[in-house]
Design brief:
five-stranded mixed sheet; 4 helices; globular; alpha/beta; 184 residues
Amino acid sequence: MALPSTVHRAVIQLSHVDRGIYETLQTTLARHPSETAERVVLRLLAFALWYEPELIFTKGICAGDEPDLWCKGPDGRVTLWVEVGTPDPERLLKACRHAERVVLLACGPARFRWDAQYLARFDAVPNLTVQGIDYAVVAQLAAGLERNISWELTVTDGTLYLTTGGETLEAVLESLAGSAPAAG
């Protein structure tokens, strides 16, 4: 018998000063039994960082041909493709051929090796943005991950301030390729 997914409900008070977005976000996301807590945190952070009203979680690791999040236009075409972690670079390049905009929130214990090996391949890709975040911050958030998540998230001058459980964490969003995404 297959293990069921764990459902997480999140409320995020978002103040994304860099994009001019001030919203209370409420979302539900399912954690696949094989998915790590760090990946759940990354998906939720990506949801807030690139928030648009049409942005939704996909089937994720259950559907290999879908990103972690996406926005689709009225015609069904993908306008925003969002990945997290350190995906295969060919996957990102393929997404860039099919989606209007592609963004990656790069993070993982081996991210700096991934950066050294693959980032140069993305220099000439105009519709790709890669931003990195410190794995230690993601791991700390993952260690306290609960089924009901309540975050206060402020992003200003490329720095993320996240308050949860009375503790505030700070992380710089490193611009690794492309430019910081503009407001949707």
